[in-house]
Amino acid sequence: MSVQAYDPLADQRTPEGPQFDVFLAGTVFLDIVFTGLPAMPAAGTEIWAEGMGSCPGGIANLAIATSRLGLRTSLAAAFGDDDYGDFCWRTLAEQEAVDLSRSRRFEQWHSPVTVSMAVDRDRSMVTHGHAAPMSASEMIGSPPRSRAVIVALSAEEPLGVPGTSSWAELAHRDGALIFADVGWDPSGAWSPALLEQLSACHAFMPNAVEATAYTGTDNPRDALYAIADRVPLAVVTDGANGAMAIDSITGEEAYVPAPRVTALDPTGAGDVFGAGFVLGTLCRWPLADRLAFAGLCAALAVQQFGGSLAAPGWGDIADWWHEVRAQAGHGGAYADSVARRYAFLDRLVPTVPVGAVRRAAATIARHADLEMAPLVTGKASGDTTTHEPRAGSETASETASEGAHADPDEPEDPEPPRVPAQKE
């Protein structure tokens, strides 16, 4: 029997409304994350990590983070026909309730893989992969109606080029807001010409390093002002220092510090922040509340390992808020400050919402293992259930991450379309 999902946009839904809240396109990686490393291994040596996890990464970080927050999410991505592709597809579609109707499976194209190593509050990564056999715009065709799309600015499929229309611009013409991000520039050029694409965007959400490099400014705040001249909603994230934003539409400007946490694994934290900020914007919250909520989501994520599967759900957020509220008045000045800053959560999660999801450990689990995890509460997605991992266990049979069907007799989704890929 299905569990009703918690829906933060329930009061906005109409029969004529968009099919999805968020539509995404990009590359899905199999992420293998090692945590608790004392240092990076020196050449010719071996070290042991205290923990590890495996999960879909890349654009899957965003897709899972938005879906866990109750946003109806659709993803267009290429998947290989190998076991890694099977795992990533199954995790996204069955466990995390991400729509993959615009995604494709490609024969003889192996899944991209990233190994991430977390040391202190930073990480290093090694990646292997090949370009997808088909561009995102070719794969998508006409995108489904959505409230928002989240894109990474790139030279390969640029926005705002006269005479051309990317999938994101087609979605925008159908009513979607474009939230843009940008990746690291390995060339070191940081060409400001990339920011010309912002003319087609509603929001831009770079981190402090990216923002200062692309704008040629000396500090994140000056970068924020430079970005605000180009886009209605400008956001600059600065890790443990928090985030700042300017909403030119409402006239708001805000800075919110990040909650104090001990970070275990920062993989995907920026994506989790973006998911929380998009939700707050779609819900029309005040700018300071949007930044606070997004920062909380990122802070909860970095305390767990596993990248995408560390993204919090409403159950995790409610649990955190109830702890903060209980400490207010006798937990010290900082605890009182946090309680005041997040007082808006009291109207959102006065109790744990029915259908709220809680995350679980990032582990490749066999279908047979899923029945062995103890059932705890309903997952925030159509016909799946949430399982709590057993503390201290790292075996597949004991950390099946919230992914079993509520009805074991219900058939699985039909086999996705497979398209032959060019051989290497």
Would you kindly provide a brief summary of this structure?
By secondary structure, this protein is α/β, with parallel strands linked by helices. The chain has helices spanning 59-68, 83-95, 136-140, 167-173, 208-215, 220-228, 269-282, 287-302, 314-327, 333-341, 345-348, and strands spanning 20-25, 28-35, 51-58, 73-76, 78-80, 104-107, 113-119, 122-128, 146-152, 177-181, 203-204, 233-237, 243-247, 252-256, 375-378, 385-387, 418-420.
Describe it for me?
- The protein contains eleven helices and 17 strands.
- The strands form four sheets. An eight-stranded mixed sheet has the order 4-1-9-10-11-12-13-14, with helices on both faces. The chain has a four-stranded mixed sheet with strand order 3-2-7-8. Strands 5-6-17 form a three-stranded parallel sheet, with helices on one face.
- Helix 5 crosses helix 6 (220-228).
- It starts with 19 loop residues before the first strand and ends with a strand.
- Residues 365-415 and 420-424 have low confidence and may be disordered.
- It has 424 residues and is an alpha/beta fold.
- Strand 9 (146-152), helix 4 and strand 10 (177-181) form a beta-alpha-beta unit.
